[in-house]
Automatic annotation (TrEMBL):
It catalyses: a CDP-1,2-diacyl-sn-glycerol + sn-glycerol 3-phosphate = a 1,2-diacyl-sn-glycero-3-phospho-(1'-sn-glycero-3'-phosphate) + CMP + H(+). This is CDP-diacylglycerol--glycerol-3-phosphate 3-phosphatidyltransferase. It comes from Paenibacillus arenosi. It is found in: Membrane. The gene is pgsA. The lineage of its organism: Bacteria, Bacillati, Bacillota, Bacilli, Bacillales. InterPro entries: CDP-alcohol_PTase-I, CDP-OH_P_trans, CDP-OH_PTrfase_TM_dom, CDP_ALCOHOL_P_TRANSF_CS, Phosphatidylglycerol_P_synth. Its EC number is 2.7.8.5.
């Protein structure tokens, strides 16, 4: 259990804490209201937890590579932690009425499909490396999720639906990057 794996495990343990603040009403203070905009303290705390958890995604991999601590456990846990974080927050946002269910299903389905492709590739002795589109997908998903968690702050003040635009962009890039993975790795599917 090295430092990189501990960071990955911490990301996994932050998931239920984040969900607690999103789904359990423990607001002891009234929401913050500025004109038509409002946000609860629960949402702010959940957003901060999500930002911390998401920011550790690259950190654990960097530490593992830099210190030559790459382990099979880390290879298993890191993508699992990413999928758990994104799936949990999207399901919570659907429950809260902030995200359309079909968008959550598309994003989560793509994550499972690419994970399955990676597992098949591993069984065949090859590795499906992260693509540029996959990295863009992650960045845009995180941006869209943060915008939804923060009730479109600060764009709500100018009437621009950034959260909606970012969510649609995340869905489209998620689908495109999933197709890209399968097209570029079709030989893996032929071998299995």
């Amino acid at each position: 259990m090295n430092l990189a794996n501990k960071i990955t495990l911490a990301r996994i343990f932050l998931v239920p804490i984040m969900m607690f603040f999103l789904l359990v009403n423990v607001d002891y203070f009234p929401p913050i209201r500025i004109n038509e905009f409002y946000i609860t303290y629960n949402q702010i705390i959940a957003a901060l937890i999500f930002i911390i958890a998401a920011s550790t995604d690259g950190l654990d991999g960097y530490i593992a590579r830099k210190r030559k601590m790459v382990t099979n456990l880390g290879k298993l846990l890191d993508p699992l932690a990413d999928k758990l974080l994104v799936a949990a927050v999207l399901i919570s946002l659907v429950e809260m009425g902030k995200c359309d269910a079909w968008i959550a299903v598309v994003i989560i389905s793509r994550e499972f499909a690419v994970t399955g492709l990676r597992q098949v590739a591993l069984l065949e002795g090859s590795v499906v490396a992260a693509s540029t589109w996959g990295k863009w997908k992650t960045a845009i998903q995180i941006t869209a999720i943060i915008a939804m968690l923060l009730n479109n702050f600060p764009f709500a003040f100018i009437g621009f639906p950034f959260d909606v635009v970012a969510t649609w962009a995340a869905a489209l890039i998620t689908v495109y990057s999933g197709i890209d993975y399968f097209v570029k790795n079709k030989k893996v599917l032929r071998l299995s």
